[in-house]
Amino acid sequence: MKIEIRELTKYYGSYRALDNINLIFNEGIHGLLGPNGAGKTTLIRILSTLLPQTSGQICYDSTSVADKREIRRIIGYLPQEFSFYPGFTVYETLDYFASLSNKKLSKKEILDRLEAVNLQDLWKAKTKTLSGGMKRRLGIAVALVGEPEVLIVDEPTAGLDPEERIRVRNMLSQLGKTKTVLLSTHIVEDIALSCKSLSILNKGRLVYNGTVKDMVKSSEGYVWDLTVDFKEYEGYMDKYNVISSIVDGDKALLRLLSKEKPSLNAVSTSPTLEDAYMRLIKDV
Ligand SMILES: Nc1ncnc2c1ncn2[C@@H]1O[C@H](COP(=O)(O)OP(=O)(O)OP(=O)(O)O)[C@@H](O)[C@H]1O
Ligand SMILES: [Mg+2]
Q: From its phi and psi, is residue 147 left (phi > 0), alpha (psi between -120 and 50) or beta?
């Protein structure tokens, strides 16, 4: 399914949270990356019909987001913050959400869906006993309960340990084979390891949209490694966007972003996705 966003702007009072966003994405998993306050949740809530836009249009194939009932049939949404009834079991929670979306699921179907998110062994556990990662996985099962064509997940990996993050990411990659998945995150690694295409929001503006590969390429020539005397360290920190610094005795090893070569001994180095992200956010 194709999602098309045209000239989308959102104001909260006089504060402009989204500024003229134009964006199209198709089947597969698409990343939405940006720092805190960039507007990711605002965009996702508008895409999910939970928040009205100030101006602009959004279409899912030919269906406008104004057609809330139809859009809600098409999409599954996992919010950034959510909670379940603490006294419900995992099984009861999924059963409850299925009935809310008018789905009659047999016991076997519910257990199959729990198996898909690797929670089958915990079907009798109360939701209050689940870890953060288990809750996210149950949240994904709930978002998928109506068999949506589009899955929108807001920061599903935030606060998870590396093993759970990998599990959630792999689950989403799998889903991206048959659905359109929009994954919002502020963790660059999540995008590098699961998405082919991504959009970057910063202060309500779209600062990049395209493939991960092209984004990295666009920052070639901007990343430098150099060694400086410790007494010059502060000066470099003030003048440049320093990505990393390792202090070693009276020397410091810096990796920084710059259009021009920052010093004679600086060596141009291949950008990582994180370097490219920082360059776009810092507008180097
Ligand atoms: N209901 C609201 N009323 C007023 N301002 C809001 C409201 N919701 C969000 N904002 C502001 O809009 C901007 C974007 O917020 P949003 O939650 O969309 O960002 P985000 O990219 O999801 O951030 P995070 O990574 O912290 O979740 C922020 O400056 C925020 O303070
Ligand atoms: Mg958010």
A: left
Q: Is 21 in the pocket of ligand 1 (CB under 6 A)?
A: no
Q: Phi then psi for 108, rounded to 5 degrees?
A: -65, -40
Ranges for all domains in the chain classified under CATH 3.40.50.300: 3-212
Backbone φ, ψ for residue 142 (5° rounding): -65, -45
What's the pTM? 0.93
Q: How confident is the model at residue 101 (pLDDT cuts 50, 70, 90)?
A: confident
Q: Quote the longest CA-to-CA distance of the chain.
A: 70
Domain range 3-212, CATH class: alpha beta
pLDDT tens column, 128-157: 999 999 999 999 999 999 999 999 999 999
CA distances from 209 to 96, 172, 196, 213, 222 (A): 38, 20, 11, 11, 19
Non-local (6+) Cβ contacts of 268 within 8 A are 221, 223, 224, 261
Q: How far apart are CA 33 and CA 40, in angstroms?
A: 8
- CA 33 to centroid of ligand 2, rounded, Å: 10
Residue 252's pLDDT band, with cuts at 50, 70 and 90, is: very high
Please tell me the distance between residue 42's alpha carbon and the centre of ligand 1 in angstroms: 6
Ligand 1: residue of 9, 11, 14, 15 to mutate (most ligand atoms within 8 A of CB) is: 15
pLDDT above 70: percentage of residues in the chain: 100
Kindly give the distance from the C-alpha atom of residue 186 to the centroid of ligand 1, in angstroms, as a whole number.
13
Q: What are phi and psi of 112, to 5 degrees?
A: -65, -40
Task: Check: CB of residue 284 under 8 Å from CB of residue 222.
Answer: yes
d(CA 155, CA 40): 9
38 pocket-lining for ligand 1 (C-beta < 6 Å):
yes
- The reply to whether ligand 1 has any atom less than 6 angstroms from the CB of 12 is yes
